[in-house]
Every structure is written in C-alpha cells, then in structure tokens.
Design brief:
Pnp Oxidase, Chain A, globular, seven-stranded antiparallel sheet, 171 residues, 43% strand, 13% helix, three-stranded antiparallel sheet, mainly beta, 12 strands
C-alpha cells in the first residue's frame, strides 16, 4: 500500500527530520567501511551512502559524509583508501567500526593493507582500493567521489544490507 504525504521537504523542526529519516531508511543500501593507515594507525569510517557505477571511464564510486565527521578529515589526507563492502553476517563489525569510541573500532577485527596504505576488512564481499577524485558540498554533507585503482570480489558472499533501521540479508 502506498500512502502519500504532501509535506514539503524544507528545513523544518524535528518532526520533518524524523519523517525524512524514516522515509530515507525505507530505501535499502549496502554498507561500506572506508579505511586507511594514517600515521601508523588504522582509521575507519562507515558509510551506508556508498554508491558504485558513478563512471566506468574513469572508474568512479562515491559516498556522502557528514560535515561534522571527525574521521573524514583524517582519511581525506590518505594517498589510498580501502573500501570494504561488508558481507551478510558482518553487522556486528559494522556496529563496532562505527563506534563513537575510536579506540574500540579495530578491537579483534581481522584486516589487511595494501602497499599504498589502504585497509580492507577481511571477509568483505567487495574491496576497492581508491584515491580521492573530487569533493562537492551538499548541505550538511560532503559528496566524495573516489577513483578506483584496484578491485576484488567474493561473489559467493552477499552484501550486508541496511533497510528500515536494521541489517537484513538479501532475498
């Protein structure tokens, strides 16, 4: 059943923001961890806004990050960023990697690194090694376009899907 609401999507009070979060949450998305080694420490950011297929020539992907992020300014300076599309069953890793307490993010999480400093979560269904191609302001977020320089995929693994404020398997 489809219901229609005729509210305008203008900046408004908490009620409108809550409605938008609920409506936007009804659109399923994959979950990606973006990570790199910065000053001998691994830094990670989790994004449910990650999008592939932006361009094939050059090969571009993108995600959106809140301007208030304290992690993105660190990752932005990395020469190479690893994107790990998390697999079904890795929802616990997603929650941990997104922990507000940055000292807890990597605890007991198996990962690998490229020579360029990109960090990849073991067991991810897709990994991409990327560099920043462009950034664009977008309201309270930045849209970050990444150029893909390397790719691997485990086609036997399904991606972790976030829908309706919870993680779900495909199918």
């Amino acid at each position: 059943m489809i219901t229609q609401t005729s509210r305008r999507a203008e900046p408004a009070g908490h009620a409108m923001r809550d409605d938008l979060r609920r409506v936007f949450g009804h659109y399923p998305s994959g979950v990606a961890a973006l990570a790199a080694t910065i000053d001998h420490s691994d830094v990670v950011l989790v994004a449910s806004s990650f999008t592939v297929g932006v361009s094939l020539d050059p090969t571009l992907v993108m995600f959106a990050v809140q301007r208030s992020s304290t992690t993105w300014p660190m990752l932005r300076d990395a020469p190479s960023i690893g994107v790990s599309v998390l697999s079904t069953g890795q929802d616990h890793l997603c929650r941990q990697l997104a922990n507000k307490d940055k000292s807890e993010r990597w605890k007991d999480i198996s990962r690998s690194r490229s020579q360029g400093g990109a960090v990849f979560i073991d067991g991810a269904c897709v990994t991409l090694e990327c560099s920043i191609y462009a950034e664009y302001p977008a309201g309270d977020h930045e849209i970050v376009v990444l150029e893909v320089t390397g790719v691997t995929a485990d086609t036997d693994q399904d991606p972790l899907v976030f829908h309706g404020s919870r993680f779900r398997p495909l199918g």
